[in-house]
Design brief:
Strands 2-1-5-4-3-6-7 form a seven-stranded antiparallel beta sheet, with helices on both faces. By secondary structure, the protein is an alpha+beta fold. 28% of the residues lie in helices and 25% in strands.
Amino acid sequence: MEDPVQLEVFKHLFASVAEEMGVRLQRAAFSPNIKERCDFSCAVFDPGGRLIAQAAHIPVHLGAMPLSVQACLRAFNFSPGDIGIVNDPYHGGTHLPDITLVAPVFVDKGKKKSLVGFVANRAHHADIGGMSPGSMPLSKELYQEGVIIPPLKLASRERLNEALWTLLLANVRTPSERAGDLRAQIAANKAGIERMQSLVARYGLDVVMRNMSALLKYSERMTRQLIAALPDGTYRYQDCMDDDGVEPGPVGIVVAVTIQGDEVTVDFTGTASQVKGSINAVYAITLSATHYVFRSLLGMDIPGNEGCMVPIHLRAPEGSLVNARFPAAVAGGNVETAQRIVDVLLGALSQACPNRVPAASQGTMNNVTVGGRDTERGSNYAYYETIGGGMGAGPGNHGASAIHTHMTNTMNTPIEALEYAYPFRVIQYTIRRGSGGMGKFRGGDGITRELEFLQDAQVTILSDRRNTAPYGLDGGQPGQAGRNVLIRDQQEMGLGGKVCIEVKAGDRLRIETPGGGGFGRLNTKPTSD
């Protein structure tokens, strides 16, 4: 019989391990993307590779990370002091810049070593090679996006694989920064190992293992209760990506959510086939987005572990936009298509529980990468940023403005840190007033961010919701679509949502991000804040 008090204690103990890993990773990291924007995630797993606890980091990382751990478990056996590394999207990764390190936790049990579980972290590296700086290109195949790392051992029994280390750093534009970030990831896992070992030393191996299993069962039970409280039926919704960055025209995503008793089937049959451009999502991304949506609906302080997914059955047709086949390009699937998957799932579930689901948020991460040669410092650089926007209004609240939503949970790069590290300056960074959708409750406003380049550089933008607007619900109006503009010689030139351009010193880039959808029909005037 579960001890509810002890279960609550261990829920927080396991989560604190992941949180401490994140603190160490952030403090030790070299790149602004990890140190300032916190583009990383940390988690704890049981001996079978099942997610037990996670920190409040990046949803798209955390839902997919179990597949990376399981890919390593299939590829090799772990010994004390080993470190697995993987970024291959077709082996549990999301896109190539996201590198996952997996380490086992062993404790002494008599004369033997007993496996307690695993700790893992995933961090977005600002460059991992490929055809454009920042490794978020307008690619047509995975090979163009950077170095592909299948499940390998970065270290064996605490001895670093020097050959692999040298090979990785030889294929990136900023090797010193990559080395620093990888060492920070190694240090984060060491912190996790130490904390898990201290839990075993304090409570005993049997108690720790028993509470791992109990937390999985508890989360499954609470998820089943949530599903059982929803009306049975099949709820459908569809939306689209603006384009794939290679060919014009919308790319549709279709979902049917079938609720029956305490189980649910999420079926993406009817979604467009995989495309030439880089917005394809691998299965891990679609699973992660589905996990996120249902976990959010719980609305309670329930552990976000693998137990939450047991009653949820996912059907994502192979070869479609939401389950692409190798070697389809996927750099944008993780950051852009993941957001639209959330939109269609919430659109479907708004029919089942309209009092709990908000209107669409901005629906894009507004990815900007800039790279080149810093002539003053005599070194290469690669800058990556996602830009926030408007949150959708809910059935009882306005949407927040200028914030990251849904599958991303990063911070922004502070202006001072950005201008110190890179050869450009921030001209404007403001809330895009009036971009949120009107309604009884207003959608949040987006952001306007304008950069001036001090040297020639290459810029890649991966963004969406430039042609289609974030939807409103219950009579609320949609938010405004986003807009990308290049300013050269005081002339404004509109850019597409997905572009790669060469900029000159003195050029400016303005990104106007979408607002969130409104909720509820507007009678006379918006509800006051």
